[in-house]
Amino acid sequence: MKFLLVCLFFSLSPLASSMTLEDFFMSKGANSICQKALTVSSHGIRKQHLRFVTGDMQQVYFVFNYNDYAEVEVFNTYTEKWRTLKFKEKIVDITLDKSEALFLTPKNLLSADRETFQLNYQFPTLPKNISYFKHAYASGLVKAGNDFYIAHGKYGVVKYDKENRNYHIFKPEVPQPQSGHISLLVDIHKKDDLLYLSYDDLTLARKSKAFEGVVLWSLKEDKVSDIIPLNQRKEGYYRPHFISDNARQETLYIANFNLLFKHDLTEIPESRYMWPNKRIWKHSAGDAIGRLMILDGVGYGCFEDIQAGSIGILSASLSQL
Fold first, then answer.
1. Which pLDDT belongs to residue 313?
2. Closest Cα partner for 52 from 253, 216, 275?
């Protein structure tokens, strides 16, 4: 089944040189896209449609998820042209390399050419003999050569070998305060030969919480390298997603509601707890709508100023917030 339904194309006035990310995020085009980020009904019911913004110096992706489909607005800073991609499922993650854009849905992974957005290949995130169910859908993705590693909730990690077309599922054991507690694998990040796996408490018990934190998995040794719990008396996770600063390879952010935990990747291994070296609570433009795009220490995305009752866009140094 083909999931890339429509690729609509329109352009702005072409310029000789590429537009900077700062100029784009202060442009009318970006502001117009951000106006679709959320809606408020006449009864005051809020619906957030923008789930995350991602990209690089060449392209910016705005991911809008609706009830049973998704739209991704893509802006090319070199050509200053927009494309609108439509999918039959929600988009939960996007991974980019030089020529390929990988779109992860709860059940499928799709590869498209970054220039034409023609579909290269696609495959389900689980083998046919395994069922999808609540809290066991795909939610995060990394690629290493011909291998894809997918965060898959209760199932753990799904590895798909594209060359041999086979699946391997592994579920790292995490410490629990009580038997019966369940932790949910939410997202995945790769650095060198380590996978960083983020976990959230799914049990929601009153007296104790299930494991929350990060597990390091060694690809070289094919086993757990380290387990770093969150100090639950100090912090709390809720569906913690990784945001990597591609221009600063040693910096990793964990998105948790509107909060960003900033970490130095070199300090995470062998740490006693997950201790962010910076907690970013507030942004000068208001509350971030969905996850931000972060590049070279600068956050880009759509923001809501609740007091002013407006939605706008911003690029700002995260170190100064």
1. 63
2. 253
Angle at 25 between CA 19 and CA 26, to 5 degrees: 95
Instruction: For residues 101-116, give the mean pLDDT.
Output: 97
Is the per-residue pLDDT at 16 higher than 60? no
Can you give the pTM of this predicted structure? Answer: 0.91
pLDDT of residue 24: 92
CA-wise closest residue to 240 among 256, 216, 252: 256
Residue 126 has pLDDT above 90, yes or no: yes
What's the confidence (pLDDT) of residue 281?
75
Tokens for 88? 């039959």
**pLDDT over threshold 80, residue 269:** yes
Q: Distance from CA of residue 278 to its chain's centroid? A: 20
Report the C-alpha gap between 58 and 221 in whole angstroms: 36
Neighbours of 2 (CB within 10 A): 8
